[in-house]
Amino acid sequence: MTQIDARLREDVHQLGELLGGTIRDQYGEAFLDKIERIRKGAKAARQGSADGARQLSDTLDGLHDDELLPVARAFNQFLNLANIAEQYHRVRRRDVGEAQPFEDRVFDELLQRLRANGHDREALARQVGRLDIELVLTAHPTEVARRTLIQKYDAISAELAEQDHRDLSVAERDSITSRLQRLIAEAWHTEEIRRVRPTPVDEAKWGFAVIENSLWYALPSVMRKADQALQRETGLRLPLDAAPIRFASWMGGDRDGNPNVTAKVTREVLLLARWMAADLYLRDIDSLAAELSMQQANDELRARTGDSAEPYRAVLKQLRERLRATRTWAHESLAGPVSAPAQVLHDNADLRGPLQLCYRSLHDCGMGVIADGPLLDFLRRVSTFGLFLVRLDVRQDSTRHASAMGEITDYLGLGRYDTWDEEQRLEFLQAELSSRRPLLPADFRPSGETAEVLDTCREVAAAPAASLGSYVISMAGAASDVLAVQLLLKEAGLRRPMRVVPLFETLADLDNAAIAIERLLGLPGYRAGLHGPQEVMIGYSDSAKDAGTTAAAWAQYRAQESLVQICREHQVELLLFHGRGGTVGRGGGPAHEAILSQPPGSVNGRLRTTEQGEMIRFKFGMPDIAEQNLNLYLAAVLEATLLPPPVPQPAWREQMDKLAADGVATYRSVVREHPQFVEYFRQATPEQELGRLPLGSRPAKRREGGVESLRAIPWIFAWTQTRLMLPAWLGWEAALRNALERGEGDLLREMREQWPFFRTRIDMLEMVLAKADESIARLYDERLVVSELHSLGAHLRDLLSQASDVVLGLTGQSKLLAHSPETLEFITVRNTYLDPLHLLQAELLARSRQREHEAGSALEQALLVSVAGIAAGLRNTG
């Protein structure tokens, strides 16, 4: 065992011991002994001991109803504490001689490599300064951790960092242990699960809290280190207004299938963001004013402040008053429209101007070392977050727009727009977009759904341009989908350009994406109104749910290639927006590798991608972890731009075509065509129960129906809870097996060695197979599934085994993830706590289905705690 592994296990053991003490204090020694028997039984069973498995099963079977919730809570908390230990382990202080983590050195090493490859200093500096990466934070129906607990977990991590100092006295170490004990007790005695479903505004506040507590601090640090690295390699610095990484959000703007997101909600979230931004800047400006006490100033600053003895403080004081006015106005506006006083800040330039004035003066007066401290950090935040904190996207389903247009044209006596073909729609839309007269008469009284679409468009038109990102059209399939939104926005009074973004989600839509965009770019007048890049969103979740990850991944790749070519031919810049989830089944996985595996030319200095729910917390919830992940984004986008991956060889393409065809056929033969599949899915997984639990503001289904009606997130989440992980691998086992049987193993190995796209797919497949567990999945079947469906469960587990075997055959390893011992270590640490939760969840599901129980009952709470614990243990769950 390495020293690093030993440290991780020490931290996990310590936190577990402290939690055990807290549990003993509340429930007594006998109950803690039960918990310990369960843990030891799970560990022994995992190592193959029949006695351990029997001990685990007997202890769980003997639990009384009133013990179910505290046992579930105990293992849920153990897993959260293990997560904290692992997260801290990734950023812990290294002893002399230990390697610096890859995430910390990746950007510096890339710059060195680029310079060694002959990249010009000035061109390289320009490219870094022009990078445009936007991370779009989205709500997540499986993120169950409450903000109050997240803050306690962060405090525990901070104590682990304090404890890591090697020069602590015995008293200091005891003091840290006492603080850890108290924090763990506070977490244990805090109800970890919300009782009511969060509102979209609650979700937005959760997203703002991630910025307030983590990204606000991580971003300037990332920029400072990138600036220093660039200066070392090129002698040049980043421009003051450089913002290579920005943030947007769907929380409060994503109304696709979520009736709880209304125009009123969107307005409230926009105002809350302005309030939060002003409040954060006010905190910074107070500390900055305390530091900038210098008297010497250049003529430019003196012209602004006169003979003030403290000119920098005088300027900051004026800015502070304007920020206070802005915060007050935003707060008052939440209750209803309020006229903005003259002091309210509306433009980022008004916030930036006084700060740049101070910055220039300090440099002119030989105080550059002061200017490049907290003042420069402040300027970096202004460039990144602006006055609006995040840019809010709006998302709505294409059918809602078509239905609204149909209602309008029907009222006008023109027929039903939603029954017209594409040519009729385009002809009508183009004529109305170029018309100067309004389309909607004053006496038009829309239905509730159409009124909501129009109200949303009015909120978009009324909001400041800098507060908004894109208007995303889910389930888009044609050029008319884009023009319909443009027309609705025009009717709402929008007179400025706004990116209207088609989202291509299903396999058929991905295959048709380039055709739709080519038609759009060829329309008279469309290109002239772009005023920027053509943004196109690629859907990972629904395409994988539709066709399986084998065919979906190849369709996404080919769609991007085609879009790059089409936009190049039309001389239009392309911005690809990647709708990735947290799991492999939804396009998730390590961002660095995923970006480097995109088609050549598809990144080109800019990238937009979603960051989903619980992955936001795991990747950006702590400043140090956030800094590492932002570094990975910076490095990957720069490398994909300047050192793009190779164009796939014809033989590789032909092989992927065959893999995709075999993959989709196998996937659909199970998911769509097997007559027992839907019933098995509902019995073997907690799918039905998830819909009842208060996990997010959005319903689990878009509409009533079978698997096709489920959202991609609960579809993936349900399979993850049982460890079958079916959506992430189903289809690959047949596709790869068939290729090997055709004697194409050498070609597959060549593709894995030379083609980042294929290598990344196999690596992500291997990771998810390592987390899958046939024995756990069988346990759910035995407890929950009627005997008539057992053969289907056995068949799926056999396919899972085949998938593992074929990946091992391809990689030449003796076991999955043999090349990544640290990841294996993390999985091993968690399994000891996960196994009892799976057993307990299966029992809870069985009891829940056998009896009536009230919402919020101990049984339902215990079930929800088990869901949360398994999600925490597996991390990338939905």
UniProtKB/TrEMBL annotation:
Q: Which Gene3D superfamilies match?
A: Phosphoenolpyruvate/pyruvate domain (1.20.1440.90)
Claim: Lyase is one of the keywords in the record: yes
Cofactor names: Mg(2+)
Where is the catalytic site?
H140, K545
Q: What class of enzyme is it?
A: lyase
Question: Which reactions appear under catalytic activity for this entry?
Answer: oxaloacetate + phosphate = phosphoenolpyruvate + hydrogencarbonate
One of its Pfam families is PEPcase
| Entry function | Forms oxaloacetate, a four-carbon dicarboxylic acid source for the tricarboxylic acid cycle.
Q: How does it assemble?
A: Homotetramer.
Protein name, as recorded: Phosphoenolpyruvate carboxylase
Q: Which organism is it from?
A: Phytopseudomonas punonensis
